[in-house]
Amino acid sequence: MTSRPRSTALLASLALVLGLTAAAAADVADPLAADLDGILGDPRLASSAVGLVVRDAGTGDLLYSRSGHTRFQPASTAKLVTGAVALDGLGPDHRWTTDLATTAAAQGDELAGDLYLRGTGDPTMLAQDYDDLAAQLAATGVRTVQGALVADDTWFDSVPLGTGWAWDDEPYYYSAQTSALTFAPDTDYDSGAVAVRVSPGAAGGPAQVSVTPPVDLDIRNTATTAAGGSGVRVSRAHGTNVVHVSGSIAPGAAAHAAYISVDGPTALVAGLFRKSLAAKGITVTGGTEFRATPASARVLATHRSMPLSELLVPFLKLSNNMHAEAIIKSLGREFHGQGTWAAGIRALESLLPGLGANPLTMNLFDGSGLSRMNVLSPDLLVNVLRSARTKPWFPSWYAALPVAGRSERLEGGTLRSRMAGTAAAGNVRAKTGSLTGVTGLAGYVTNADGRELVFSMVFNNFVSGVPRDVEDAIAVRLASDRAGQSQPGVGAGRRAAPGAEADPVRDLECSWTKSC
């Protein structure tokens, strides 16, 4: 049902004077609503669940609502809730630490006991950061650890994947395992994942394979170097760290890069850090163990992450799922002493009223929106967006949202290829959300009158390809709106684009396929 704010008396008068039906009079009085209705009349949305809410950002005046109270699967628009709650609860200056600690005494250049590597969930740890920790330890004069290397990931629980996540997504980097000790391959900070690069070797010979960071995976390479090159496929067997590389690549071709998740990141971190220690001339005589660091341990070296306010950029611009889950478990640890999804969601729900939202109107099971069990309403997202404008951290939040039509990757993010050359370009700042049969867009736009608006749209249960052009048409219509002026032809005669059938890859966030 569509809600249109209007005066009943005025509509009646228009109908009498102009001889119009009530519906036609409504369109005259509210051309924006009429145009939005037209856009939402796209045949691809027939029999689908459609929600759209538009409000004045400052006054809260309702400009349009269709199914605003209805709960939808939000996909990655849920990250708006996670990000706003994190800024309010953890604070924009929150950092994650990774420590080296021991209870042992130093004897000359020897540490007479175990060395603990303790993580608190930093999703931005690179191989270089582990090297830096090893360098800090070497700078203290330690050359031998007469004990074990103990990997401590107990800041979070041992549940690696979220409730309601698809099992067949498990090998993909955007559905990686969450651990308090983890790593990322590059400055997209896709934690719990590696980059597998396949390069041509000698003609007729095997292709060359490298892994970043250089963790110990079981690489089974049958890819060859052959004229023409049929393409390369990289896959990880479910529940293992066996990586299959197959196909062929042409001599002289650019390297093929594939991002995949790993199984059990904590153990791989331990192996990676052993290499860092060895490179700095430090020998660990014992094996690798996995347990908590004693409370009496003293810290020998520390790495601190970037602040949350900076992490927001790759988190929101690139829709990074693993950042969301590290945030949720960190909230649980901060407010309830438990680094679990359940404790984190409980903390999120307790903080939501401070963002103008009622937690009893939604159900979340993770922070990223990957779970098919998540439901929330367009109204809730709009309330969070409006409330965020009143917070001291709003400038960081606003700057971290994807910007329509801005080609720079860490500016435009998941909107960098959308709405270019329109009134929405450089204007719409919004979070995207995509799963098969689910798409959403929620954020801010300033219309042609200079009026700041907040909007939230979520579409569920369509069976075509993702109707992102419908989302874009709505955003452009809002950006170009002038009070009382219709835009003839908007939404009229819309048809699905050729070949717009559902596609499991194309339906994902473009950042998850590294296509934007």
UniProtKB/TrEMBL annotation:
Q: Fetch the InterPro entries from UniProt.
A: Beta-lactam/transpept-like (IPR012338), Peptidase_S13 (IPR000667)
Please tell me whether the keyword Protease is annotated for this protein. Answer: yes
Q: Keyword annotations for this protein?
A: Carboxypeptidase, Hydrolase, Protease, Signal
Q: Write down the EC number.
A: 3.4.16.4
For region Disordered, the annotated ranges are 484-504
Signal sequence span per UniProt?
A: 1-25
Which molecular-function annotations from GO does this UniProt entry contain?
serine-type D-Ala-D-Ala carboxypeptidase activity
What highest taxon heads this organism's lineage? Bacteria
Q: What family does this chain come from, according to its entry? A: Belongs to the peptidase S13 family.
Q: Which PANTHER family match?
A: D-ALANYL-D-ALANINE CARBOXYPEPTIDASE, PENICILLIN-SENSITIVE CARBOXYPEPTIDASE A
Q: Which NCBIfam families match?
A: PBP4
Q: What is this protein called?
A: D-alanyl-D-alanine carboxypeptidase/D-alanyl-D-alanine-endopeptidase
